[in-house]
């Protein structure tokens, strides 16, 4: 357990660090964040005792570090500083073996099996056993870094202080190294304090974060308390956006570059939609921010190409995503830049309409096939069939995250209303259908022009979406029925 | 492990060979048989044991002392160009020795040990001055800064010595000969004078072999690893100065041994101080015995000062190390 109380100090009289206090329990990992020159490394040196504290104290298990003899302190606390250049070279094994220095006693060599085991184990953990006999200066920066981490691990100390441990490492080794340290922390009850350059890595691995600014604690707490847009922006003087990690309950940030790329003004127009018997295709000159339930590239992202492809009603391919991708590529379009949907409906019956509001225009594109209507409130297990209502809403404006969701809701409500209006029935239950079993929806926005923070039915854009989707869907159903009759 | 064993065997063989050559070759060639059978040739045995052997042993001790001190200084300063000579420590020791001779100083209770003790004091003082000044100039103590500081101090101390020599007027040749370094005509008393200090100094350095390994990664890193840096650094500086002082007191300034030997040893056997220190000790002894042999035989009957031979080998090696460091430095950065 490491306890820092009112710590102030620096080089000489001048305090670089002032009044820092925190406590890290056994098995926990604290990340220190802060911009260049915020005093991270100085704080580390104060904690490790390389620099004396002017005020305050650093205690390990209740005992001040100044009261520990050098060797005993090294048995309690292992430090990994930033990489250094050396005039002479040791082999990897010799370097890692130095980690056992604090455990060596007496005038003569006292290399025990415990020492040997600790060295081999540390090399194994850092995956450097195969370099054992290599001279350290012949290794790459990343490999050297792992050797020094192994040296620190070989100390078998209960506290690990790390100064940017992932320096020089590629992403795979960054992950491996932090996984190992985290695992060691949990298994061996280590206390870990580490400086991080990368805010996202710190948020992922640390239990607690400390945000340092001009030598003072700006914020300390769990990652969600520290990784806040306004705090990060204030300390790092840069614009960031906070978003959740896709798989872990940890906050992450994304940088927002200030360099404005020269973006073309892009205005989506209904006449730019190309409609053939094979597909509906819209190609935008700039990427549109998109949220969709498409076959190819579903979810959210930025895409230039939007395709709704006609397939036979009996279309049955094992890997429809791959098949659709290769179809897109065959057309000379990059599948990674394309949203791809499928429908059994004749695509030349697609309804594409433009609606104008005070903020700008929206375009609604619908292909409707209702042969497979479903009343969702009475849904039972059904076999999946292609035969679908695909709805696209494309907005010339800037939609917020919540506006995307509201646009989806509004569109779905309008679609359901259209089905009711057209008296589309669920053939199984005989009640009015709310959709078909494989409907897809897409909302895309240019993110240029006016800010549209909301898209519910009371907003201008919401009103247009409701009206447009209703009209287009009704029209689409009518065309579909006519075609069926013929 | 087998590599280390081989290192010691090879070094011992070299040393043994050097000793045998050193005592048998000369104006009169003596059969090695005399070594273990003095009765076979009494006159030869007399030359061997009273003239050649003390000379060889003294050369060996001086070489060993300078080499192990050089190895320790290099490790401590992480500077491959550091040795007692390039750091100016030898000059400091010379000033101590010349002052003792010049003023006829004899410290109470020390008797004949006055000379080595004054030499050591001169060495130690110079060491601290050079370190202090280099640190003032450049906190990071870059290789070039330290060596330049050594040269500045060497030149200054050299001028002090010249002044004292000029003032003595007499025995000029002898003092200059001594300054250039020589182990000739010293005899067993000189061996006795130097031996205890060389044993103590070497032992102090050997006790710090693991610390020297740790300090190769920098003092801060060494502290992280649990080395009591202040204490250990002082011990190493004192140990190295004692060795330099003892060597200079008996043989004058012999340059570059402390540079060449650790460098070669490191190149062949690695830079682990646990072995580097004892191996440098043995190889330094062997090298200086051979150099002394060359000094007295190359233009026989005239003897060259041994320092001329070591500088002849050492200066190019110095240039080579400097070149390699600089080249390596730019490509690694």
Automatic annotation (TrEMBL), chain A:
* Magnesium found in the keyword field: no
- Keywords recorded for this protein, A-Z: ATP-binding, Nucleotide-binding, Translocase, Transport
Mind telling me which SMART domains this protein's record contains?
AAA (SM00382)
Listed Gene3D superfamilies: P-loop containing nucleotide triphosphate hydrolases (3.40.50.300)
Where do the ABC transporter domain residues begin and end?
2-239
Protein known as: Adenosylcobinamide amidohydrolase
Write down the species. Planomicrobium okeanokoites
TrEMBL record, chain B:
Principal place of residence: membrane
Keywords from the named record: Cell membrane, Membrane, Transmembrane, Transmembrane helix, Transport
Pfam families attached to this UniProt entry = FecCD
| Compartmental location | Cell membrane
**Record's superkingdom?**
Bacteria
Give the stretches traversing the membrane: 12-36, 56-73, 85-107, 113-134, 146-167, 187-207, 234-261, 281-299, 306-323
Q: Which SUPFAM superfamilies match?
A: ABC transporter involved in vitamin B12 uptake, BtuC
Instruction: Tell me what topology the record assigns in the membrane.
Output: Multi-pass membrane protein
Q: Which family does it belong to?
A: Belongs to the binding-protein-dependent transport system permease family. FecCD subfamily.
Q: What is this protein called?
A: FecCD family ABC transporter permease
Q: Which organism was this protein described from?
A: Planomicrobium okeanokoites
């Amino acid at each position: 357990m490491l306890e820092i109380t009112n710590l102030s100090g620096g080089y000489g009289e001048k305090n670089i660090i002032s009044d820092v206090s925190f406590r890290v329990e056994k098995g926990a990992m604290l990340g220190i964040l802060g911009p260049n020159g915020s005093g991270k490394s100085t704080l580390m040196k104060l904690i490790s005792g390389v620099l004396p504290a002017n005020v305050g104290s650093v205690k390990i298990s209740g005992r001040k570090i100044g009261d520990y003899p050098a060797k005993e302190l090294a048995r309690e606390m292992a430090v990994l500083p930033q990489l250094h250049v050396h005039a002479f070279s040791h082999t990897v094994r010799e370097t890692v073996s130095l980690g056992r220095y604090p455990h060596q006693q007496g005038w003569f060599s006292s290399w025990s099996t415990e020492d040997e085991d600790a060295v081999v184990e540390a090399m194994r953990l850092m995956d450097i056993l195969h370099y054992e006999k290599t001279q350290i200066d012949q290794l790459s920066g990343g490999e050297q870094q792992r050797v020094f981490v192994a040296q620190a691990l070989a100390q078998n100390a209960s506290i690990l202080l790390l100064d940017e441990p992932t320096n020089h490492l590629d992403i795979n080794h960054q992950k491996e190294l932090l996984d190992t340290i985290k695992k060691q922390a949990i298994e061996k009850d280590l206390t870990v304090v580490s400086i991080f350059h990368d805010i996202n890595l710190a948020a992922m691995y640390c239990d607690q974060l400390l945000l340092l600014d001009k030598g003072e604690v700006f914020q300390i707490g769990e990652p969600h308390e520290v990784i806040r847009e306004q705090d990060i922006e204030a300390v790092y003087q840069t614009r960031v956006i906070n978003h959740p990690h896709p798989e872990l309950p940890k906050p992450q940030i994304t940088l927002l570059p200030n360099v404005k790329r020269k973006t073309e003004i892009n205005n989506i127009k209904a006449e730019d939609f190309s409609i053939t018997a094979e597909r509906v295709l819209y190609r935008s000159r700039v990427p549109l921010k998109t949220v969709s339930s498409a076959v190819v590239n579903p979810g959210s992202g930025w895409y230039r190409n939007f395709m709704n492809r006609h397939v036979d009603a009996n279309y049955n391919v094992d890997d429809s995503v791959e098949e659709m991708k290769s179809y897109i590529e065959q057309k000379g379009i990059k599948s990674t830049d394309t949203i791809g949907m499928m429908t059994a409906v004749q695509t030349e019956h697609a309804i594409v309409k433009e609606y104008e509001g005070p903020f700008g225009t929206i375009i609604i594109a619908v292909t409707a096939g209702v042969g497979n209507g479903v009343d969702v409130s009475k849904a039972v297990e059904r076999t999946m069939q292609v035969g679908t209502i695909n709805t696209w809403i494309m907005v010339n404006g800037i939609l917020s995250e919540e506006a995307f969701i509201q646009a989806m809701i509004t569109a779905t409500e309008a679609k359901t209303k259209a089905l009711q209006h057209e008296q589309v029935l669920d053939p199984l239950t005989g009640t009015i259908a709310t959709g078909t079993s494989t409907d897809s929806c897409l909302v895309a926005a240019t993110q240029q022009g006016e800010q549209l923070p909301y898209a519910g039915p009371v907003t201008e854009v919401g009103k247009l979406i409701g009206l447009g989707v209703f009209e287009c869907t009704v029209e689409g159903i009518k065309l579909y029925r006519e075609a069926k009759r013929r | 492990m087998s590599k280390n064993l081989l290192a010691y065997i090879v070094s011992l063989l070299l040393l043994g060979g050097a000793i045998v050559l050193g005592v048998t070759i000369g104006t009169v060639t003596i059969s090695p048989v005399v070594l273990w059978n003095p009765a076979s040739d009494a006159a030869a045995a007399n030359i061997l044991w009273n003239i050649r052997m003390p000379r060889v042993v003294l050369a060996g001790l001086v070489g060993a002392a300078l080499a192990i001190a050089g190895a320790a200084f290099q490790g401590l300063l992480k500077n491959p160009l550091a040795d007692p000579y390039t750091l100016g420590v030898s000059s400091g020791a010379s000033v101590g020795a010349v002052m003792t001779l010049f003023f006829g100083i004899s410290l109470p209770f020390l008797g004949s040990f006055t000379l080595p003790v004054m030499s050591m004091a001169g060495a130690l003082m110079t060491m601290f001055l050079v370190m202090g000044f280099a640190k003032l100039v450049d906190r990071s103590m870059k290789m070039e800064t330290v060596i330049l500081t050594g040269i500045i101090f060497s030149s200054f101390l050299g001028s002090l010595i010249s002044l004292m020599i000029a003032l003595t007027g007499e025995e000029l040749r002898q003092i200059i000969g001594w300054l250039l370094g020589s182990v000739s005509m010293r005899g067993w008393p000189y061996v006795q004078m130097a031996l205890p200090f060389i044993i103590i100094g070497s032992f102090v350095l050997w006790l710090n072999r693991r610390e020297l390994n740790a300090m190769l990664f920098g003092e801060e890193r060494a502290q992280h690893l649990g080395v009591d840096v202040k204490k250990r650094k002082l011990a190493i500086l004192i140990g190295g100065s004692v060795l330099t002082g003892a060597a200079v007191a008996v043989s004058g300034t012999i340059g570059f041994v402390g540079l060449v030997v650790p460098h070669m040893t490191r190149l062949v056997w690695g830079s682990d101080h646990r072995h580097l220190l004892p191996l440098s000790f043995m190889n330094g002894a062997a090298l200086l015995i051979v150099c002394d042999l060359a000094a007295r035989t190359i233009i026989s009957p005239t003897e060259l000062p041994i320092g001329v031979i070591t500088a002849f080998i050492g200066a190019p090696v110095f240039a080579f190390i400097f070149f390699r460091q600089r080249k390596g430095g730019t490509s690694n950065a």
